[in-house]
Specification:
The complex is a heterotrimer of chains A (about 325), B (about 300) and C (about 325).
Chain A: E1 5-18, E2 21-34, E3 38-42, H1 49-56, E4 65-67, E5 70-73, E6 76-77, H2 83-89, E7 94-97, H3 101-104, H4 111-123, H5 127-140, H6 146-149, H7 159-171, E8 177-181, H8 189-206, E9 209-214, H9 217-223, E10 226-231, E11 234-240, H10 241-246, H11 251-259, E12 308-310, E13 316-318, H12 323-328
Parallel strand pairs in A: 3-9, 3-10, 7-8, 8-9
Antiparallel strand pairs in A: 1-2, 1-4, 1-5, 5-6, 10-11, 11-13, 12-13
Chain B: H1 23-29, H2 31-48, H3 50-53, H4 91-127, H5 129-143, H6 147-158, H7 162-172, H8 175-189, H9 192-199, H10 204-240, H11 252-259, H12 267-295
Helix pairs in contact in B: 2-4, 2-12, 4-5, 4-7, 4-8, 4-10, 6-7, 8-10, 9-10, 10-11, 10-12, 11-12
Chain C: E1 3-16, E2 25-38, E3 42-46, H1 53-60, E4 68-73, E5 76-77, H2 83-89, E6 90-93, H3 107-118, H4 123-136, H5 153-165, E7 171-175, H6 183-200, E8 203-208, H7 211-217, E9 220-225, E10 228-234, H8 235-240, H9 245-252, E11 303-304, E12 308-310, H10 313-320
Parallel strand pairs in C: 3-8, 3-9, 6-7, 7-8
Antiparallel strand pairs in C: 1-2, 1-4, 4-5, 9-10, 10-12, 11-12
Helix pairs in contact in C: 3-4, 3-5, 4-5, 5-6
The chains are: A alpha/beta (about 325), B mainly alpha (about 300), C alpha/beta (about 325).
């Protein structure tokens, strides 16, 4: 159900000066998301996925410097946009959901106040209109007795309910892009499934483009249309979810998939795949493939520019190994 | 219940960090600590070496040379660089010996009140329950007492002297220690390495002394510097009111009090010990702030 | 079964502040739990937040005394045991690698700490034993004098494991040992735990909310809900034929990396369990897709259904006939 391109990112870089030099948490990241499509940014901690989402929403720490070849939202250049334009877009047509529902909602205000204020600020609606829309959205996200909930404070709700409220708040102004940063990770397993299902259903119904950030490959497999695997600030592999999981090409992706115990598949009590070594420092000048210190197939060519490879099914990855060499192992 | 990390927080797998620079080098790098600590150190050295550094005996009176102004005035001379007071005693010497008193007060009161407050706070923080209730009750009672008035009353009853002041202040000023150490201990208590020590079979005393105490020490040091400064000021106030240290001891507060009458004619008599006091408090607070920054950088905004 | 560690009728209540003017309420964190593990086995305890698994872990470690019930290790009641005696037999591995190590100690001193407490050998001998154990968990000798702040999460967790094993205990209680680690590191630690189990003939009690991990490492699984065990079976049996509706929902919620499957429907509805006000009768009935008359009246007991033990009225009715 893919439609027009809602978000286009090319060559996104984020640099942060630190005591020992310049930190590069995001390096040359590119991807696109279309209407009705879910792109998952997946990677382990420190890979730069959260920083990327903050860069998109212009929520980076003050010391950080963002630059991008292209950063377009529905054709509009975000990098050139004025502060007031960004503020107008944020929360209205580009919305974000955060990981910790407990800290993302203001404990001093009721749910209703937060939902309504948000909507009135962007759309200038009357209190009555805003209120009825809030109730409608709370019901849409599956909260029963929504009218009564408006008067409740965040601490009176469970984690799962708070996350639903956050989703409702994100949807208040009818956004066209939703960025969800680990939306279900802090929740119990059974609630997680419900929240993800809710997001998927809403996306289908409203035709929203969604960028979902997670470290959980299971979540990615079930919800993503496209996947971008991130490592050390770069996108190392990208493509349709079905392709990535069926035929992972980049050694990091392969390694990652072999680490996960899968009930019914991985022999119980057996050895899990591992990726030896640690993530390299992202400070200073970085050349070549950042995974070479941990890769079983590292070669001298890995410390120079890495070619971008592409498969027919639209899968892309960066590696010196040619697909034939990869298929050999 | 043990502190539970939510499943969400996954921690980056980074390279082993190279050894942090030696602690004292880190301390020197902090500007506040370097400046404040430097000033303090200078004062301490001067105070210790008072008999060597001070040009005159601070108690010797020279009635022929009363209220001689300091050297930067017209009538002043290098014979008495900071002039003399109303009894002809050399001011510079009195100032230097006065530093001894202020520093002694600061140190002793911080020590006594620190011992009392830390013990109470750590017991309350570690054991919780009834111990906590008892300590909190004591703290609340103590907080409801105005320190100056109690000190005044005690001194009025018992008579003022250096040791009375030290004891009274030491037995009164433990409240901030108790409150801060209690909360610091509670935080450490909830950490998993304390549970691990318990699971290893360690006794409570051992856990408190080897696992908890080293980790709440930074808080203790910071509070100690602040309380020392506060004690010095309190003693100066008491001495100013005539109920602290007794003449002829060269306490700075007493010097300010004695200079009251000459305020408009011999301004330096009151300005010099006043400035010295302000500088000492400033140095202590600056050093304390620097220590706070070094030991608890994550609490900075 | 020759149980190495066995818990009978364990209860643990806490008195909780319910608000400014309300009387203190009683939280039944563990509400009648019986579990047992045989020597060399791995008991997995799974459940979501509020189910009481961490409190149960603390009781097994002797850190929290039970409000009622007993724990037996090799037949001996734990209540009568000296604290040090217990420490020699049961040791913990905690979840948070950052708060489970004293930041002011060196790695070798952390691992040698239990030996210190028990006065084993001389100082030099203790250090030597600590270094040997560190080597066994994959940390070479040059790590011995570093402080925790200089180690990564996975390395710290290895130190925690070394500390747990230095006294050569029989039982290791692991409370979410890999939940705070990256997936690739989690795999390393799980492999390590399995190797050490072989090498030292250990018995594990492995608490986790991650069912895939539990399926991989546990020999038996107990599913907890609001302070009770609702199902108990061999791992294979539980994962192939879960009987309690909660277990079924839990297993259905596990998202395996299979792109052909979508997001599962758990069928649980929106209400969430409040440990302070557990529902009458079966604690799961408000969310249970298979509830029927009588579920809100009587609390189901654990009954044997052949391969498993289940606490559910769907099965207890059958056995009472």
């Amino acid at each position: 159900m893919a439609g027009e391109t809602v978000l286009e990112v090319q060559g996104l870089h984020v640099d942060i000066p630190v005591a020992s030099g310049v930190l590069h948490p995001v390096r040359d990241v590119s991807f696109q998301v279309r209407r009705g499509e879910t792109l998952c940014l997946v990677g382990e901690s420190g890979c730069g996925k959260s920083m990327t989402s903050l860069a998109l929403m212009d929520l980076l720490p003050r010391a950080a410097v963002r630059r991008a070849t292209t950063l377009r939202f529905l054709g509009e250049d975000l990098a050139q946009a004025s502060r007031s334009r960004i503020n107008a877009l944020r929360g209205d047509r580009m919305a974000m959901i955060f990981q910790e529902p407990m800290t993302a909602l203001n404990p001093a205000y009721t749910i209703g106040e937060q939902l309504i204020e948000h909507y009135r600020h962007h759309r200038g609606a009357s209190p009555a209109d805003a209120r009825s829309r809030a109730v409608a959205l709370l019901e849409k996200v599956g909260i029963a007795s929504a009218a009564k909930r408006l008067g409740q404070y965040p601490h009176q709700l469970s984690g799962g309910l708070r996350q639903r409220v956050m989703i409702a708040m994100a949807l208040m102004c009818g956004p066209e892009l939703l960025i969800a940063d680990e939306p279900s990770t802090a929740l119990d397993v059974t609630i997680q499934a419900q929240i993800l299902r809710l997001l998927a259903d809403l996306q289908q119904e409203l035709g929203i483009a969604m960028v979902l950030i997670t470290h959980d490959l299971g979540v990615v497999a079930r919800i993503a249309d496209r996947v971008a695997v991130m490592y050390a600030g770069e996108v190392v592999e990208e493509g349709p979810a079905t392709e990535i999981f069926a035929t992972p090409q980049h050694p990091y992706t392969v390694g990652l998939l072999s680490c996960i115990p899968v009930p019914g598949h991985t022999p119980p009590g057996g050895k899990l795949g591992t990726i030896p070594g640690v993530v390299p420092s992202l400070v200073g000048d970085l050349q070549g493939c950042s995974f070479r210190d941990r890769c079983a197939h590292a070669q001298p060519g890995c410390s120079r520019t890495i070619p971008l490879r592409e498969s027919q099914a639209g899968q892309q990855w960066r590696c010196v190994l040619s697909p034939e060499a990869e298929a050999a192992w | 219940m043990s502190a539970q990390l939510p499943a969400a927080v996954v921690l980056p797998e980074l390279e082993a960090v190279p050894a942090a620079p030696a602690a004292w080098r880190q301390l020197l790098r902090n500007k506040a600590l370097a400046v404040g600590g430097g000033m303090l150190l200078l004062l301490i050295v001067l105070a210790i070496l008072a008999p060597v550094v001070a040009p005159y005996d601070p108690y010797v009176q020279d009635l022929a040379n009363r209220t001689v102004p300091p050297v930067w005035y017209e009538q002043g001379a290098w014979l008495h660089p900071l002039g003399t007071d109303q009894l002809g005693r050399d001011y510079l010497s009195r100032l230097i010996y006065g530093a001894r008193i202020s520093l002694l007060i600061g140190l002793s009161v911080a020590l006594i009140s620190g011992l009392i407050g830390t013990t109470m706070g750590m017991l309350a923080g570690y054991f919780g329950g009834r111990t906590d209730m008892a300590v909190s009750f004591l703290v609340t009672t103590r907080l409801s007492m105005p320190v100056i008035l109690v000190a005044l009353a005690t001194v009025a009853l018992v008579g003022g002297s250096l040791w009375v002041v030290i004891l009274v202040l030491g037995l009164l000023k433990w409240d901030r220690f108790a409150v801060v150490m209690r909360s610091a201990t509670q935080q450490v208590r909830a950490l998993e390495y304390v549970a691990a020590a318990q699971a290893a079979g360690a006794s409570t005393a051992r856990i408190v002394l080897t696992e908890v105490l080293p980790n709440v020490l930074p808080h203790l040091i910071v509070i100690a510097t602040l309380e020392a400064a506060s004690a010095i000021l309190l003693e100066a106030s008491l001495s100013f009111l005539g109920l602290g240290v007794q003449p002829p001891l060269p306490s700075w507060g007493l010097m300010i009090s004695e200079a009251k009458a000459y305020m408009f004619f011999s301004f330096w008599l009151i300005a010099i010990p006043g400035t010295a006091l302000a500088l000492l408090i400033f140095a202590i607070n600056l050093a304390g702030d620097g220590l706070h920054q070094v030991f608890m950088p994550h609490e900075r905004s | 079964m020759n149980a190495l560690i066995r818990a009978e009728g364990l209860h643990r209540t806490f008195s909780v502040n319910a608000g400014l003017f309300r009387p203190r309420q009683v939280l039944h964190a563990v509400n009648g739990v019986d579990v047992a593990v045989e020597r060399g086995g791995v008991l997995g305890i799974v459940g979501e937040s509020g189910c009481g698994k961490s409190t149960l872990a603390r009781m097994l470690l002797g850190l929290t005394p039970p409000s009622a019930g007993s724990i037996f290790i090799d037949g001996r009641d734990v209540a009568g045991m000296d604290r040090r005696d217990l420490a020699r037999r049961v040791q913990p591995v905690f979840q948070d690698p950052y708060s489970s190590l004293n930041p002011r100690r060196t790695v070798a001193s952390i691992v040698a700490f239990p030996l210190d407490v028990h006065g084993v050998g001389t100082k030099a001998q203790r250090r030597q034993q600590a270094i040997e154990m560190l080597d066994r968990v994959g940390l070479p000798a040059r790590y011995a004098d570093l402080t925790p702040g200089q180690l990564s999460g996975g390395q710290r967790q290895r130190v925690g494991i070394a500390r747990a094993l230095v006294m050569k205990p029989e039982i290791v209680v692991c409370d979410e040992p890999t939940s705070a680690l990256d997936v690739s590191v989690q795999a390393q630690i799980l492999n390590l735990l399995l190797d050490l189990r072989q090498e030292f003939n250990l018995t594990y009690v492995f608490i986790s909310h991650n069912l895939a991990v539990v399926e991989h490492i546990a020999t038996q699984v107990a599913v907890m809900y609001l302070g009770r065990v609702v199902e108990f079976a061999d791992t294979r049996t539980l994962f192939r034929a879960p009987q309690h509706p909660y277990t079924q929902a839990l297993l259905a919620s596990v998202l395996t990396p299979d792109t052909t499957l979508g997001i599962p429907e758990t069928g649980l509805g929106l209400s969430f369990p409040d440990p302070l006000h557990p529902p009458a009768g079966c604690p799961f009935h408000p969310r249970c897709p298979q509830r029927h008359a009588g579920c809100d009246e009587r609390r189901p007991e654990l009954v044997d259904t052949g391969a498993s033990r289940v606490a559910c009225h769907l099965y207890s009715a059958a056995t009472t006939q």
